UniProtKB/TrEMBL annotation:
This is Helix-turn-helix domain-containing protein. It comes from Streptomyces spiramenti. Residues 20-73 form the HTH cro/C1-type domain. It comes from the Bacteria. Gene3D superfamilies: lambda repressor-like DNA-binding domains (1.10.260.40).
Length: 274
């Protein structure tokens, strides 16, 4: 079994695979027999055992039911997924469902909760060179699950500002960009989503080269995550959060209005479609 961590301990992915193999072997079952019992290809289950691939949530749940393991494999799957996230963003992602308002500024790409699956996979491929396609798929799956927050019965208010560069930069070809821009326009039509674009014409702005996410929680407190291209910082200190909130406000003051922003997005969509 592979040892992925620098200290020689099993990675969460490898730990899940080893546990699954123990459950299977303790019952004297072949991979094929397990696959037939849970309705998944035995080759897929074999890759999970070897730590080459994470199981889907559906597979983990079926395996837990089949081996009567009280959700152990599903819990290990969540730990393995967490290990794919940078440490600085883990706590913010876990607390995101508590947010009553989410404010995001992104200087180089469409904000994550507004991304289509194809677009986000291309972002991950470009920004995380050397990561396997399985990892890319898992990261995309994590982000897609996070997007469910915007489809809840009572979603948080989502306020996204993006630099115009995010609209101009082609990601994944015209088809990918067409779907992405249409998706942004569709999401912006929802009453609890506001999208603004900070245009090139404004020149320099307070958050060039990075991104900022502010989660306002039910108790009124705010947590922040600041990211650059290869690092990030979680922020909860009130004074620092205030400073970052002021930067967001400055960026918002420089951005087009919501209506002007949507008109600009439609103009870029027409260019991509032509």
């Amino acid at each position: 079994m592979e040892l992925d961590n620098e200290d020689g301990t099993l990675s969460p992915r490898a730990r899940l695979g080893r546990r699954l193999r123990r459950y299977r072997e303790s019952r004297g079952l072949s991979l094929r027999a397990v696959g037939e019992s849970v309705g998944f290809p035995h080759s897929y289950i074999g890759r999970v055992e070897l730590g080459e691939q994470l199981p889907s949530e559906s597979l983990a749940q079926r395996l837990d039911r089949f081996f009567e393991t009280d959700g152990v494999l599903t819990e290990l799957l969540e730990l393995a997924r967490d290990s794919l996230l940078p440490g600085y963003s883990r706590d913010a992602v876990h607390r995101e469902p508590e947010a009553k308002r989410i404010q995001v500024f992104n200087s180089s790409a469409v904000p994550g909760l507004l991304q289509t699956e194809d677009y986000m996979k291309e972002v991950f491929r470009r920004s995380l060179p050397g990561r396997s396609e399985d990892d890319i798929n898992e990261l995309a799956g994590l982000r897609m699950r996070r997007q469910r927050i915007l489809h809840r019965k009572s979603p948080p208010y989502y306020w996204a500002i993006m630099d115009e560069a995010a609209l101009m930069r082609p990601m994944g070809g015209n088809g990918c960009m067409t779907s992405q821009l249409r998706h942004v326009l569709a999401m912006a039509a929802r009453p609890y989503v506001t999208v603004q674009v900070l245009p090139f014409s404004q020149g320099a702005h307070p958050m060039m080269g990075g991104s900022l996410t502010l989660h306002t929680l039910r108790d009124g407190g705010t947590i922040a995550v600041v990211e650059s291209f290869d690092s990030g910082e979680p922020v909860e200190a009130p004074q620092r959060v205030l400073e970052l909130s002021q930067k967001f406000d400055l960026a918002r003051s420089l951005a087009h209005s919501a209506d002007e922003s949507l008109a600009l997005i439609r103009a870029y969509l027409e260019k991509v479609e032509s």
